Amino acid sequence: MVAPVPPPASRLAGVGSSPVRELLALVSRPGVISFAGGLPAPELFDHEGLRAAFDRVVAGEPRRVLQYSPTEGDPHLRRLLAERRTRLGLPTGDTDLLITSGSQQGLSLVATVLVEPGDTVLVEEPGYLAALQCFAIAGARVVAAPTDDHGILPDALADAVRRERPKLLYLVPTFQNPTGRTLPDDRRDAVARVAADEGLWIVEDDPYSELRYRGEPVAPIAARPEAADRTILLGSLSKIMAPGLRLGWLRAPESVRRQLVIAKQATDLHTSTVTQAAAAAYLAETDLDAHLDRLRAAYRPRRDAMLAALPATLPEGSRWSEPEGGMFVWARLPDGTDTADLLRRALDHDVAFVPGAPFYAEHPDPATLRLSFATPTVEEITKGMHRLTAALAE
Ligand SMILES: Cc1ncc(COP(=O)(O)O)c(C=O)c1O
User: Structure pTM?
Assistant: First the structure.
């Protein structure tokens, strides 16, 4: 008789794989027009520029870029990213930043450093799924903070904080995944005040703000003086350069920086030296703003095409967000609709989206869905919306 091995750690019990990732495998068959993915459009990657940057650093400094390197990140990359953040209106020093392997790792490090099993974490509902996973693995009690079409409601947030005594609030204030909505400036001030008055960490996840197609930029919560000592801002190169690089950064107050570095050391020692060096070489030589203009010029008409098609596509009584940027439109169909059933019919018509229920931490709304306009072309969007109309008519 062989003795059984001990079971996996209980912290993983009840934490499922992301239903969206599983769905993506299902919808990637040829012929399907997919509004499901949260991926950037691959034809917009600057693969030539990136290849040249990798060439430059591997040919020029092989002994450095193929070696181990500091946990905090490549000094050149940190400097360039800090300068960019400063130019965008949030004064940032190189040492404020820790380079991470995608902002997803930033989330996981924050959960490791701030969350003890049983601690309460407040999240937006609906919200970014993989963040819910991170906090669940850390053993957090995840509680939904009240929101409306513009995001967190500051007064209700203050009540929830007093009632639930959470350790942190996680939010995506700009072009949120999955809703596309943006938290207005005055609410950002109010959220910062609640955090200051009640003693709360804010984790501000910001992978999308540079993909703005309409309207004016809104300063991050991290820029509000009241919350400066308690806001951790997460950034990412995934949506503005390429997600396969797995490069992100976090900007943390000094009080937790050392613990975050130690947690990263224990996780992966450091983010890939060569990838960081190539990204730094790329950023030093490339006009990223011109690249961003190309991305916006490609995404803007896709967003406009989707919003233009929605009134004729969705049934009477439906509502949807009108995002000024990012990748997602969020819709709610009339009461009684189950978008998981609708997805099965949609797939018969070769069109896909993500049903909304899994994005909820507490109270799923089965009538909701997420539509991404980033990867299909304008023609595909128009065609895909016709297919969706047909699926809805069944
Ligand atoms: C809100 C949000 N945070 C974090 C991430 C993870 O991004 P990264 O590729 O930087 O790990 C995503 C990816 O889609 C996201 O939507």
Answer: 0.96
